[in-house]
Amino acid sequence: MSGGVDSTTAMAIAKNEGYSLYALTFHYGQRHAREVECARRAAATFGVKSHLVLDIELDKIGGSALTDQANIPKGRSREEIAKGIPITYVPARNTIFLSYALAWAEVMEAPELFIGVNAVDYSGYPDCRPEYIAAFEKMANLAIKLTVEGKMRIAVRTPLINMSKGEIIRLGMKLGVDYRNTHSCYDPFPDGKACGFCDSCLLRKKGFEEAGIPDPSGAIL
User: Fold this and answer.
1) What does the alpha-carbon distance between residue 27 and residue 29 come to, in Å, rounded to a whole number?
2) pLDDT for the residue numbered 159
């Protein structure tokens, strides 16, 4: 649960399907740590049973503009965003996050993990692709005691993976998501306002335009 458009919408979908919600958020040394507070608000709104916010020092590993002082790409065209893997990719981030979720799921005997990855309107991250999710799910069922003993099977749910950002936002609005309380910007100003030009801001803007809905957060200047 990052506090962004996708993870908040994924939470709304799980809630609408009748699941009891347990949310997991990471403070991993990201420069856009404001998203953690948005995740807290979303978790409270959707009445999660428990919300863990864990600290992982991925900034000490580095390798990403999100966790060090490298320049965040700004003002790229949609074609540029869709081409290649940008410097905002965080090495193995979703593998690390899903591994923590898998451990918690085993403790709670919770067979389904929801993650808001998207492979349509995204920045080309390899750990958002369907083949990656399928591989992680296969690994998960080989990795933990309950699955090896045949007492549980893990399913990794990705309800947004084949949806455009506009489709995601329209669905979220139907499910009561308050997008004012979401944050997308990779490089916010000190006051928390979105820069309006990073890849994540531009994809968010595209989504609201396609949905025909003004961004209620006023995030895009």
Assistant:
1) 6
2) 98
